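User: Teach me something about this protein's shape.
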Amino acid sequence: VQLQASGGGVVQPGGSLRLSCAASRSIFSGNIMNWYRQAPGKQRNLVATITSGGLANYANSVKGRFTISRDNAKNTVYLQMNSLKPEDTAVYYCQGRSYWGQGTLVTVSS
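Assistant: First, the predicted structure itself:
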């Protein structure tokens, strides 16, 4: 049983990144999948969520800039992040059922 997140890195303001999270089928199949983020010194917050049928919801801070999607054949959830801002800098975690990925660091800086 596992979640493996990837795709973080350093990007300039206004840039884009795509995060991926490969999950075990027991976590992924038929379940809601979520992306959270935790900035230094702050609490972990929900960024985006997607149902097994593809319905998505977003935190107000990322609406219109981030897109969550899932590939049910690959047991993978994605987070496309566009128009990145310095305040998006955080460790991003994927989450499903009661399981958490290891996190991937996104740094937005010029």
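Now, about its shape. The mean pLDDT is 96. The first helix runs from residue 25 to 28. If you'd like, I can walk through any region in more detail.
User: That's plenty for now, thanks!
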